[in-house]
Amino acid sequence: MPDQTNDQPNDRTLPAVCPRCEHDALTTVADSPVPGVWQVFQCARCLYMWRSTEPARRTRREAYPAGFRLTAEDIDAAIEVPTVPPLAAR
Amino acid sequence: MPYDDLRSFLDTLEKEGQLLRITDEVLPEPDIAAAANAAGRIGEGAPALWFDRVKGFTDARVAMNVHGSWANHALALGLPKGTSPRQQVEEFARRWDAFPVAPERRADAPWQENSVTGEDVNLFDILPLFRLNDGDGGFYLDKAAVVSRDPEDPDHFGKQNLGTYRMEVIGRDRLAIQPVPVHDIAKHLRIAEERGEDLPVAITLGNDPVIPVVAGMPLAYDQSEYEMAGALRGAPYPIATAPHTGFDVPWGAEVVIEGVIESRVRQIEGPFGEFTGHYSGGRRMPVIRIERVSYRTNPVFESLYLGMPWTECDYLVGPNTSVPLLKQLRAEFPEVRAVNAMYTHGLLVIISTAKRYGGFAKAVGMRAMTTPHGLGYVSQVILVDEDVDPFDLPQVMWAQSAKVNPREDVLILPNLSVVELSPASQPAGVTSKMIIDATTPVAPDVRGNYGTPVKDLPETAEWTERLRTLLANR
């Protein structure tokens, strides 16, 4: 069976969900300077950004590697680096 | 002649056969990163890579792997491209002694040619951004220098910091930044955030070849990277005043991005394939709001591939990590001959040293772990004799295989500090450390049977030259 993770679908319509966290609020961040070649999309929740011409392993939810996926819980639990310090007394 | 900008250095690389122009059209992903990744896999002397036909872009100019071989690193320091790693480190250490060299302020910086401000800022209009590794959360600026000042002492030139920190593009005018807590910019940010103030920053992209070297160097808090750049290039470093922040930035930069780290804000960042050969992230990190971008006409976008070593990153941070350790060790132990801290930013270090008395080499190993860089990195030290070249790994392996009696010569020290990015640490930031003493025991340490070493014959040096000459004249 061919390895579909290397397919380059170049689907320039806004996808239904984020490949990484499956959130459905996505925006188009950039269009190719040469019209119609690619678009750059971004997820409003996990901030993942991708170009429509990237391989399916980076652009398709079903091909996106399990090890790189994020959930809402992962984002909420992410630690701060560096931590926000207390405000100094004035 | 030192290089005042990236373009003049790229010209030299091309003349020296160390720049390869990719003339076929490439995809932004995965081609550019894969080609730069491959440059680290084709052996010694890999060239820088130049791309100007990138699908979908009209004016992309991308430079990769600029420091990505010993030949290119030597040329960056103005040395012949055949200079060995050990010779490069020795020359670097010699030039260090000229520090500080006062910078030279210049007007008419080429990046003043174009600028955008406020709501007109859109990084995608200016830079051909692209992803490096599969799991990266987005497109990164990973070879830029970030300038910031101490909010409590903003006029102190030495406390003005210039450092390389990974930055993820999270919007047309927004970046996430990783200020590791031990780094100088994190100190600036903490002071600003305690006051509830934004921290202004100036980010310079596409710099002359010395800036990436000094921006990744563990200097003291009040030591100026510009004054170190002057020492390394043997001439005052040219700086210019950035228009929005008033900060001192490299005169020859391709792009100068100015804005602020927003006070007390954190957003999800990463992951990003790091110098350890592993991803780190996603964590909540500070965010930069871009307010002005100045840039040369047709700017060159310089980036760096990093992943499983060796990559450009390893060449870039090899000598600039080895030299501070060498200087700090020699200050107390003049017996130290050479330091090779080129493995994963100094997580493993090889030190050659003479011995004052039995047990001395192990003490040198412990001291390496308590230097400023050692506290966060040096986790394994191999000590070798003064006649073993720590940059010659077959020699090092000979010393280790022949001279180490594991029960007495391997020391394991539990629960010590290391950078959180170290993948072996458990919990993150804490690790055991190891000293392997592969030096010959000296009195009163009388272990082993080392009385009769086989030395090179007295005539061998002459024959070495003779063979080289015969080979060269064939």
Automatic annotation (TrEMBL), chain A:
What InterPro entries does UniProt report for this protein, alphabetically? VdcD-like
Its name, as the record gives it, is: 4-hydroxybenzoate decarboxylase
Q: Which source organism does the UniProt entry give?
A: Streptomyces ruber
Automatic annotation (TrEMBL), chain B:
Q: Any note on cofactor binding?
A: Binds 1 prenylated FMN per subunit.
Q: 3-octaprenyl-4-hydroxybenzoate carboxy-lyase-like C-terminal domain location, by residue? A: 315-438
| Catalytic site positions | 274 (proton donor)
- Kindly state which keywords UniProt assigns to this record, in alphabetical order: Aromatic hydrocarbons catabolism, Decarboxylase, Detoxification, Flavoprotein, FMN, Lyase, Manganese, Metal-binding
Cofactor field: prenylated FMN; Mn(2+)
Q: What are the protein's GO molecular function terms?
A: 4-hydroxy-3-polyprenylbenzoate decarboxylase activity; metal ion binding
The cross-references to InterPro entries, in alphabetical order and at most eight, read: BsdC (IPR032902), PAD_UbiD-like (IPR053417), UbiD (IPR002830), UbiD-like_C (IPR049381), UbiD-like_N (IPR049383), UbiD_Rift_dom (IPR048304)
Q: Which family does it belong to?
A: Belongs to the UbiD family. YclC subfamily.
Name of this chain's protein: Phenolic acid decarboxylase
Which species is this UniProt entry from? Answer: Streptomyces ruber
